[in-house]
Specification:
2 copies of one chain form a homodimer.
Chain A lengths: L5 H8 L10 H13 L6 H8 L4 E6 L5 H16 L3 E6 L4 H13 L4 E4 L6 H10 L3 E4 L9 E5 L1 H14 L5 E6 L4 H16 L7 E5 L4 H15 L4 E4 L2 H13 L9 E5 L3 H5 L5 E4 L2 H17 L6 E4 L2 E3 L9
Helix pairs in contact in A: 1-2, 4-12, 7-8, 9-10
The structure holds a DNA duplex.
DNA sequence: CCTCCAAGCTAAATCGTTTTAGCTGATGGA
DNA sequence: TCCATCAGCTAAAACGATTTAGCTTGGAGG
């Protein structure tokens, strides 16, 4: 339409008019015409030529889980600011799915991955590490693999919560955890165990591990035993899902909170606040975790060998469920 | 590596060996070598060549809202089965954002859009309709625009709930709605109003509209008035967010449910179930809405002029909060 | 008057596929 | 013996952009 070659148009529209000594008058006509016809470059062609896709992958266990959807929202917003598009997938805590999704996303040309690794994914993560593909672990990490990560300081989280319960006069404190080898859970367990031991309460350490995929029956069983046989006076749940399921069970068992037993949960939600005895919980700095992960990822993409590990500060939101005399 | 032309490799790997009369022996060698070298075609090049991106856009108001993240999960799974990738964005109920995101996604080459339109987006939707770009409205629709949609039967939803409350002996029933012109809300209001009128209770129709972006103060004010001045005996909330905020207010006001007032919410969540008086709510068939939207979209992409409007059945989950004598 | 240089532009290659047209050699029929 | 046919393959164009090398023109300098 302007009567010049595509090459010239490309140069002008990419702001390289000066660099290529394009005549001012011609450059102006090109820009004007481009605007008038609402020209938008074909990104696919651009990507093919440049080898860049401006795509990143976000693999979580389940995007319908509010924790991960909150993360996704922030990652997406930040990525968009940085001119990247996010592809989101869910693994359902399944290793085969995770492996498949990594392959699928790589094939789609993502330039980096934010990944919530599931149980048993150590080998996959090691492969990713060996390949030097820009990758950031989110929420969960492997202490033996030197990969970037953005996680909660899990040890401190349960340390904080246990100290709070001890401070309230609770001694016989139980923990409901997943049956897993994932380190974020192991750290949370250690934070609790160490704090109990340091307080001279080793005898009162109770850790119950439940099936991650169908936790409710295991939780019920554990709670029955802990309350009726072990006579615990406080229960800490290591994840939001465990806490929520636990509250259903405690209601069914007609256990009163905090009179019969104190409760501490993980990751607040409306159910915790609206509960008849609002639930004390460990708050993760979701914003920082999410933003940290995408910022690290983009840096890794732009500068190979960039690496960073974030362990972010938990916060204890103290409500009625953990206070002896509210 | 096999010593044949790229063309032949392409034919074989796309399963067109027979069609192009490729020798069996050669075809076998190509497949074998492709596997051995872990060949995966470059999707960007494929897309450029074919003009297809296998991308669809999903524009919701907020992906961190559990309703929409549940939708996103299902859409994503179904799209993946159909060999499409979903690009998700959030508008925050803002028209300018919506317009921008539509442009961004179109520029990224999505072949279709699933869209939750916000207040005031009628013109945008009309443009989309006029352009014949494959588009499906989700959750909300425009009766005057003949665009595909996948929504709840909103009228029936509140009709069902109002009838239930009337059946329980409640008469002075109030409604908390958004201050909006969006038809899904207007339909919900009509379902309530008509049912009240048909029962001869026009005098007891109370509709309060609150600000969609900062509803809590408005809700508090409305509730104070409805309960203390109008002496309503039941309150229906038109969305999950309204109901959740409403419960916070009712707790603050020390109103007992259902003794002082009955409550019906929208879209169940753990908070409703764990509430001291579990909340009766209208359940949307999320799975059907989500699956419906993506299935319609893909059909529209494959067959231009395909159109379909779904109005899916609500279900009332009756719990303690709406029963006079539980 | 010729040479040289710079300014301002274009042609062509390239990215990795797919598809169309066409080439080659063997076979069969007349 | 010669042509037609067909199986089995390849060359080349195309998708839409970017980039490199190179072309033309006019003016300055010798």
């Amino acid at each position: 339409m302007v009567g010049v070659s595509p090459a010239l148009v490309s140069m002008v529209l990419n702001g390289k008019a000066a660099q290529y000594r394009i005549g001012e008058e011609v450059a102006r006509r090109v820009v004007k015409t481009a605007n008038e016809m609402h020209y938008a470059p074909n990104l696919v062609a651009k990507n093919l030529r440049s080898g860049k896709t401006q795509l990143v992958g976000l693999i979580v266990t389940d995007i319908s889980n509010p924790f991960y959807s909150a993360i996704a929202r922030i990652v997406e917003d930040r990525a968009s600011e940085l001119n990247y598009t996010v592809l989101i997938s869910s693994t359902d805590e399944n290793l085969k799915n995770t492996e498949r999704l990594v392959d699928v996303l790589l094939n789609k040309g993502v330039e980096g991955l934010i990944l919530v690794p599931c149980d048993g994914s150590m080998k996959l993560i090691q492969r990713l590490y060996d390949s030097h593909f820009p990758t950031v672990l989110l929420d969960r990490y492997f202490p033996d693999i030197d990969l970037s990560s953005s996680c909660l300081d899990n040890y401190k989280a349960t340390e904080l919560a246990t100290e709070h319960l001890l401070g309230q006069g609770y001694k016989n404190i139980a923990l409901i955890a997943y049956n897993t080898e994932m380190h974020h859970i192991l750290d949370r367990i250690s934070g609790y165990e160490d704090t109990m031991k340091n307080a001279g309460l080793s005898a009162y350490v109770h850790v119950r591990k439940v099936n991650i995929l169908n936790p409710k029956p295991d939780i019920r069983e554990a709670l029955e035993e802990l309350i009726h046989s072990e006579h615990v006076d406080a229960i800490m749940f290591l994840t939001n899902m465990l806490a929520t399921n636990g509250l259903y069970c405690l209601n069914e068992m007609n256990v009163k909170i905090p009179d019969d037993v104190a409760v501490v949960g993980f990751n607040g939600n409306d159910a915790f606040h609206l509960f008849y005895s609002p639930i004390t919980y460990i708050r993760q700095p979701i914003e920082q975790i999410a933003k940290g992960s995408i910022d690290i990822l983009i840096k890794s993409i732009k500068k190979s060998n960039y690496k960073s590990k974030l362990f972010l500060e938990p916060e204890l939101v103290i409500q009625q469920s953990s206070q002896r005399h509210p």
